[in-house]
Design a protein that fits this description.
This protein has 162 residues and is mostly helical. 61% of the residues lie in helices and 2% in strands. Helix 6 packs antiparallel against helix 8.
């Protein structure tokens, strides 16, 4: 092995070890942060289980981390997915969304699930994907909620919105 390759490998090992001491902050809140979303949208038990097992890890303030999240650079990669997921939809932030935004987020949820874009393929490698029944259930539940939000947008304060 030549000197340059040996020094390069030693450098990479040192960087890898150093990364273990600087891990991203965990996405774990002290409260059950999706309670408002669940109370407002009333997901039936099977849908709630799907949301908890396949959505909340990246789209809420509480992630159930796998054991391998303690190993860098995987921890950085997972953190990036969580930050990106919460940027697009954060069920924990449901109280901050307007009715119009809630309707839009539910619309996006339907589109992403129908197109097979959610959950991400990387997530399904270790957590599994959505079954056909889960997809149908999520979409039916989401579409019912969209009707409610659209009705609320159409009839603000008991009057037809202009």
């Amino acid at each position: 092995m030549n000197k340059f390759l040996k020094k390069g490998l030693i450098f990479l090992v040192i960087v890898f070890i150093g990364m273990q001491f600087y891990t991203p902050e965990k996405n774990i809140s002290e409260t059950y942060s999706t309670a408002f979303f669940e109370n407002e949208t009333q997901p039936p038990a099977p849908i709630l289980a799907t949301l908890q097992n396949k959505c909340y890890d990246c789209h809420s303030n509480n992630t159930n981390y796998p054991w391998y999240n303690n190993i860098a650079p995987v921890s950085y990669w997972i953190d990036d997915h969580i930050l990106d997921g919460k940027k697009h939809l954060n069920f924990s932030g449901w109280t901050t969304y307007s009715t119009k935004k809630k309707d839009h987020k539910i619309e996006e949820l339907v589109a992403e699930v129908q197109e097979g874009e959610m959950p991400l393929k990387e997530y399904t490698w270790t957590h599994g994907g959505l079954t056909e029944d889960e997809v149908k259930g999520l979409i039916a539940w989401a579409e019912r909620n969209r009707v409610i939000y659209q009705y609320a947008l159409k009839y603000k304060n008991g009057q037809l919105a202009q």
